[in-house]
Design brief:
mainly alpha, about 140 residues
């Protein structure tokens, strides 16, 4: 099992997005871009695939400990942090969401089926026509 496999499995298990991984690595003063992370998570056959080095994985694990447990001065409960990963929108989503005064009325929430408007019945434009196409002709 390679470092890339371990990194991918941790990302999936902890439900982390790329921007969250970048923040975790910044906790231990390790800088990496989203593009480099994308190359690490690619398939081995892809031309832009990049191997995850020991240093990157080590720093990610150290940052993950700080992210989940917190520090001595500010401890955290790991399970609450993991649950917050599911609900937290990404930075891009936060910027694109419109600001509303009433948080209960969110424009992205499910509103159910739209109500059908009852339209007044229109009278037919064309009258009913009876076609005589040769059937039931009187016999001569």
């Amino acid at each position: 099992m390679t470092n890339n496999d371990i990194f991918k499995k941790l990302r999936v298990a902890l439900q982390l997005r790329d921007d969250q991984i970048v923040e975790i690595l910044q906790l231990v003063d390790f800088r990496v871009s989203k593009g480099e992370l994308g190359n690490i998570f690619r398939n081995e056959n892809h031309p832009n695939y990049m191997e995850c080095g020991d240093q990157l994985l080590r720093n990610f694990l150290n940052g993950l400990v700080i992210h989940l447990r917190g520090t001595k001065e500010n401890p955290k409960v790991p399970m609450e942090v993991i649950k917050s990963h599911k609900n937290a929108p990404s930075k891009e989503e936060k910027e694109t969401q419109p600001k509303t005064d009433n948080p209960k009325k969110n424009s992205t929430s499910f509103k159910g089926k739209p109500k059908k408007k009852s339209l007044p019945k229109k009278e037919p434009v064309v009258e009913k026509i009876r076609f005589k196409n040769g059937k039931n002709k009187p016999k001569e």
